[in-house]
């Protein structure tokens, strides 16, 4: 089982989740997607964040070694990390009209798309500036609403453009609207690919994962089979 955030329920007074909780999660996300060694701890002004980050990175590295490494979105012109050594895509397990177009799935981690899914799925329930814990917040919102079992977000790498205030757009991604229907989201991703030059077009699939920023990347199969 993946290790869980030991600081997950701590609070910083009126400022929400503790610095240590956010640091641990950020470190874990880096550790589980940076094989084979534990990544170097960043320098920050808060020693509690740094210490928790180092703990999280070690936990993520251990889970990556034991349960498989994960892709992680990046925020520059290169788009998604194309391949993680030792990681291979699995069958997406999806059926329906669009099943054949999204036949594989990569294990992925990162708060960026989950924060956007949370914002669209439950407006007003966002994590504020503490996006490192977007997965935990989204998991809780889905539990409170009594479902759905899965959510999908059409997504692709987008050419550079002016800042818009949309975190995904500003990081270099186009996205559609979140949906709890695979075929609906798949049609949106395919329609976007038909009218623009696609860059790693596909779907983010979120399935409740407790405290973690875990999701799956389902690439549209017009891309080369060895990359998302």
Question: Can you tell me about this structure?
Answer:
Helix 1 runs parallel beside helix 2. It is globular, with a radius of gyration of 17 Å. It has 228 residues and is an alpha+beta fold. The chain contains six helices and six strands. The C terminus is likely disordered. Strand 5 and strand 6 form a beta hairpin. The protein has a six-stranded antiparallel sheet, with helices on both faces.
Features:
228 residues; 6 helices; 6 strands; 33% helix; 13% strand
> In what range is the share of β-strand residues?
5-15%
- How does the helix and strand content classify structurally? alpha+beta
Q: What is the number of helical segments per DSSP (H or I, 4+ residues)?
A: 6
Q: Provide mean pLDDT, rounded.
A: 84
What is the N-to-C succession of helices and strands? HHEEHHEHEHEE
Side by side, the strands of the main sheet go 1-2-6-5-3-4
> What global shape is seen?
globular
Distance between the termini: 25 Å
Low-pLDDT residue spans:
223-228
Largest β-sheet summary? 6 strands, antiparallel
Rg on CA atoms, Å: 17 Å
The number of distinct β-strands equals 6
Helicity level: 25-40%
């Amino acid at each position: 089982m993946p290790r869980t955030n030991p600081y997950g329920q701590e609070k910083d007074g009126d400022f929400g989740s503790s610095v240590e909780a956010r640091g641990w999660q950020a470190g874990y996300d880096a550790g589980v997607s940076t094989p084979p060694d534990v990544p170097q701890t960043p320098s920050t002004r808060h020693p509690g964040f740094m210490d928790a980050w180092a703990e999280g990175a070690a936990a993520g590295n251990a889970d990556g070694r034991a349960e498989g490494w994960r892709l992680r979105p990046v925020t520059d012109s290169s788009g998604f990390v194309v391949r993680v050594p030792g990681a291979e895509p699995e069958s997406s397990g999806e059926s329906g009209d669009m099943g054949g177009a999204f036949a594989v799935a990569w294990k992925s981690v990162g708060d960026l798309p989950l924060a956007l899914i949370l914002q669209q799925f439950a407006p007003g329930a966002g994590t504020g500036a503490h996006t490192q814990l977007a997965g935990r917040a989204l998991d809780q919102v889905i539990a409170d609403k009594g479902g759905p079992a899965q959510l999908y977000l059409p997504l692709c790498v987008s050419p550079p453009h002016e800042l818009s205030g949309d975190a995904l757009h500003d990081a270099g991604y186009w996205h559609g609207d979140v949906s709890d229907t695979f075929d609906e989201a798949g049609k949106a991703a395919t329609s976007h690919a038909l009218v623009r030059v696609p860059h790693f077009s596909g779907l983010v699939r979120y399935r409740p994962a407790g405290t973690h920023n875990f999701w799956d990347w389902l690439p549209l199969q017009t891309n080369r089979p060895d990359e998302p």
